[in-house]
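Archive entry: two folds, one per protein. Generate the first.
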Amino acid sequence: MNTTKLGADFENKVFDYVSSLLDSEGFMGATKTYSRIFKHKKYKCAATKREIDFDITIETYNPHAKSKEWSSLIILECKNYSHKVDISDLDEFAAKINCISKSGIKGCMVSTIGYSKTEIEQARKDHIALAVFANNDMEWYTARNTHMQTEYLMDILLGKSSVGCMPVLYNDGNFVDLLDFLQKFGAAISEKNKVFIPYYKDETIKNKANELYKKCIFQTNDIAGEVLANIFPEIKIRFDNLNDGVLGMFSFEDRVVTLSNEIINDEHRRNFTLAHEIGHICLHESYIKDHAKNFFDYSLDKIKLLQDDLIKRMEQQANKFASFLLIPQERLLVEVDKLLLITNNLKGRFYLNSQIENVKTVDMVLKKLSEIFNVSKQVVKIRLIKEGLLIDDYRTPQRVNRILSRL
């Protein structure tokens, strides 16, 4: 296949992918902002009036503006090379953008291989975003992965690692997802693809977890495993290599919980991660099962979007659910009462500060509860603080402690 055909095919795939994200249903007299996407539309140079052709452009219109021209313009320059993009391509792209306008335009270079450090530094100076999209038969997914480490993403941007199914985008020194990038620079995102996730009060999450807990008669300390086996017997568990930092995921379509090989021998993390995924099933499945095949993966022909604040909300809710499920309130209070008695503590709570005895006591308490509930000491600590059973001012400077004690 010749290089022209390869380039055109890649452009078409990028065009179709981005098109599916946009709200392009605007019309004359519309009352909301909308966007339109074009391939190889020509724009006049402000100085010379000559026309410049761009691979893909996204024009966004403000219906309340007096001018009928676009209010913001995003330009995508696609490079399907067998090597990294050359610095001259970046210089030419920046010059073409500046020729059109000095404001209201955001450029993004899209490559299949990656970029050199020199190009990354130059793009940052020119305020041009850099993206890496896989160029194969793999479907591209729109999803946020807040767990991915910067080092891992930088290796992809530099062409040292393959990009996989989720495009990587780097803008002004930060890695962002495509959806946030489009929204930041004015593009209107399709509302019909967005998912609603409700706010749950902690008490509501606790009640849901307790209801699930009470449905089982547990034979072992593997609470999450027994809940899954007894309440959701159709759901299977498997282990696999997941993206860096991702410990688990649930496929709503296949009814499979996938846990990372990273935690296969870590009982506490494995237990909590499985309970976390059960939290997604109980709290979120009814809201997103019609919108996504997978928590992190979305089909190309029916892309559904989860905003960053929704992802964070879901993760926080699933973490709280896991804590309430694995550390039931009534049982926790019983075990804490025992430990208070053993340590001759008449205050009804533990204190963690700079005093050696308190440090040793709290460490013993955390270790004991960690063994009882089959979770990490950190999970226990967070829960005790949340319940007001542990006061942690160990890291508070002593000067601040003195000031607070006078209040």
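Generate the second and append.
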Amino acid sequence: MNLNKRIIRAMTLLLSLFFVLMLHLNYFIIFESREYVEDVHNPRLYEVTRGTIYDRTGETILAKSEGEGNLQKRVYPYGKLYAHVVGHFSREYGRSGLEKEYDSYLSANPTMLSVLYEKGKNVENKGQDLYLTIDHNLTAHVDKAVKNRFGDRKNANVIVMNPKTGEVYCAYSTKAFNPNIDEMKKVISSGGKIDYRFDAVNNQFCPGSTFKIITAAAAIDNGLEDYEIMDETGSINVGGAVFGNDGSKAMGKTDMRKAIVKSSNVYFTDISKQIGKENMIESLDKFLVTKQIPFDGLNTIESGITILKRGENSVQTVNLSDCDTAAMASVAFGQEPVKLSPLHMTLAVSAIANDGKIPVPYLVETSRRNSKVDYSAERAILSRGCSERAARLIRTYMVDCVEEGTGRSARISGFKFGGKTGTAQVEGKSPHAWYVGFAPANNPQIAFCVMVENGGYGGSNCGPIVREIIKYCRNSELIRE
């Protein structure tokens, strides 16, 4: 009888331990297995040939795997050109960019069961291929245009996208790293650091006069499209602060069209008072100012209203509602305290090109394996920045800006498009140069932003790059006339 009791107790203990083990196993499968599966040190990742990443044509390879098993390594044929977009993948340094965000597609979730199953069926263990919206030839053309203009002296950031669909054709930054493992090892071994920050989407800069298109939209949607200054004298005092045009040039009688074409700081400073603080904040909110932009999982920065603390090496972030009259006036023509990323300004000009609607920007069109589509991007509208009427009016003013105003440096004979230049002051350094726009004038199919950090005047320094972008797009299927 005692023997039977001991057997029952032993069996009960074994069953309890088995139950606890099963609970732990189920917990691991449900809550922690994903982290293990996706860890770059998981050997099963290397039993699967990682998927290839292509540009929009499906012909140009931006990332591929070479070798087999544990000897497999990732190869990036264009080095720095797509370091921030495609990112990198290696056992030594982890992953970034789309390699990180779409890892589950590229690696096909290599669990033990899936690997053994495919081995048993004699099927190649291969992840899915990604097909991006990126146009390699355009991006290479942008890189060449930037290098021809600035060499390696300046950090240029360029975004080109479809303002209606959100497809991003080019996302470029001069400041980049080479994601090939041997090149990364050289940097690390020499005591250097890898800078993963993608300035085109994850850094803030004062946008200068390009921001006037947002203020103009706010003015029009608040019934001020006909507002005029009868005698624009070249400077104005708002809230105890004096704001002026470039060189304090007086413009005389000035309406909104002239203020955009000739870039009057005084006009936009003055009209911000007429719009009113609450209305201005409401309009900026529609353009997602102070919001973070979703971008296919890439790290993006919230645009911000920031004030540099004088005498201190620090920046204070403030709310729009806390800005005084002078600060709001400065915001109205794109100077401190407002700061946006080049991606954000591309979305702002996309709203103007797309009758007020801001599309969700994206980089990955599909993922496929053996011609089977597993993932396909869903196009959507992120926000309505302004009314259709405001967008259409501003488009005509931006076309005039290229034809006869500050955007003339990018003008192309026989082809009309819209643009707005910007020159953002930076204390103690050269100003940031900006040029945003859309093309063609009557049926916008691309929206773009060219921004050069401490690049000087926007018109003269960004204009030649803009011209090259439009020329390429006209000669490709990106602009169909």
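Annotation attached to the second fold: Residues 137-176+183-366+379-475 form a domain with the Beta-lactamase fold (CATH 3.40.710.10). The chain has 15 helices and 22 strands.
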